[in-house]
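#struct-help
A.M.: can someone run this one for me? Single chain, 321 residues.
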Amino acid sequence: MELEFRHLRIICSIADCGSLTRAAASLRLTQPGVSAQLARIERALGGELFSRAQSGVIPTAFGEEVLSRARAVLPTVDELLEVATLAPQAGWSQHRFRLGSVNAPLLGGLITAIRSHHPEAEISTRGQGCPVPLVEAVAGGRLEAAVVGDSPGYELALPAGVAGEPIATEPLFVALPAAHPLAALEEVALEDLEGEDWAAPRPDNDRIREYWSRTLLVLGRRLRVVHEVEGRLVLDLVRSGHAVSFCQATFEEVPGLAVRPIVGNPLWYRHVLAWHEEGPLASLRPSLVQTVTEAYWTAAARSAVYRSWLERQGATAPAPA
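D.P.: on it. Structure tokens below:
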């Protein structure tokens, strides 16, 4: 016999009532029926759960062990059943979208696009520095879509079942302390950054660090990465004057930090939107791509440095994705 939740309720009721007769009444069963059920449960578990006394029944030491676990499990089961019962009455959304994103200014646009089609949708998000786990999660059905990115020559390999649409390709800029002498320049040459302490993400299977190193090696340059950090830690180190770092062109300047283009635009980054080919967002591809692209250009417009760079290129967009 396989143990079921109803069996746990029976033994808990027997323990709470202190007798088979009272337990049968509370469960609206017959006393012989409860007694027979208890015997089957004890055989299934391989031990006696209660000792019989003139005044009723008392849990054995083994019974106490089983009861402690049954009492821990049943409240959670009751909550689950309550949620399942209330869901249709509460009118909960049938649409649930789990989204992922690397550090990029596109996630808000993706949520906006989904909300335009499913205003009542339940949307959750997950951030990740490396895009590889995100596309793997999309392939495995753990995410419906993800904002990811890659570098020239190191394009992201999308797993089977995952589709991707390039949103934009942009140059990498450099983030400097605002008081750094190079911050006074319109563009910074790589040779002027020789000897600087760099902050960069740890090498990962997205191979971005490899792309940087290989590109700079061809140019006869190298990075002296002494701070392997991401996100807010990079910002803190640069603002404090302890490091410089590459950054996306859409990265906004904040007090204490300057963003400058690199002479010759040696490094590039491509933003990509990925989704499951058979997922609920596949049919919305044109709308999602359009809204996410608009979100990118909204972010670009917020950066005076990026706008100025675009004007100098005689372009209204970065290199074609």
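A.M.: thanks! The chain is about 40% helix and 20% strand.
D.P.: also worth noting: The CA atoms of residues 49 and 64 lie 8 Å apart.
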